[in-house]
Structure formats: structure tokens, C-alpha cells
Amino acid sequence: MVTRKKYDRDFKLSVARAAVEGKTSVPELVSELDLSATTVRRWITEYQKLGDKAFPGHGRRKQNKDFEIAKLKAKIDELEMERDILKNYQAFLKKNRM
User: Fold this and answer.
1) What CA–CA distance (Å, rounded) separates 28 from 26?
2) 86 lies in which domain range?
3) CA R_g for the chain
4) 9 and 43: one domain?
């Protein structure tokens, strides 16, 4: 099993600041620090949105209301699609019985 690397808040802030302030490019950070480009870009985005308040907690992403709402909307869409399939199947069965 692969264990995930954990980085503390100060490390994430320093990497994001270096990229945002133009001190170092993303490809340089990726190669120097052995990080994934996706991870670095995610840290940069969060730093740009929240500034020094970025990366709260203990390395876990906070799941805010918007995340929960998006998750529930996706579930609603899935259930509506299943309902429509069942309605069509029911109509198909009625048609074939006659």
C-alpha cells in the first residue's frame, strides 16, 4: 500500500508563495522538491484564494457547504436518470404486453 506524503502548512505556504511571487516556476518546484505538478498548482490556487489563511487544519481538505451542495446535486441527477430509465422500461413492458 502506498502511503501519502503529508506536508505541513508552512511548507505549503512557502511553495505557493515562491510560485505566486515569481521566485520559482512550477516545473522547477516540481523537480527540486519531488512534488506533483497537480499538487503544486492546487496549493497555488488555494493560496491565491485565501492568502495566509490557506491550508487550515491538519492537512485535511475542509469540506465546505459548496462541496456538499455539489455532491448532493450530482446524486439528484443520478437518481433522476435512474427514475427516467425505470419509467421508460415500464412503458416498454406495457407496450409489449398488448
Assistant:
1) 5
2) 63-98
3) 23
4) yes
Average of pLDDT values for 46-57? Answer: 85
CA-to-CA distance for 79 and 1, rounded, in angstroms? 34
**Of the spans 2-6, 38-42, 60-64, which averages the highest pLDDT?**
38-42
Rounded CA-CA distance 74/54 in Å is 27
Looking at residue 48, what is its pLDDT? 92
Q: Are residues 41 and 67 in the same domain?
A: no
Average pLDDT for 4-15: 88
Written as one string, the DSSP assignment of 55-79 is: S-SSSPPP--HHHHHHHHHHHHHHH
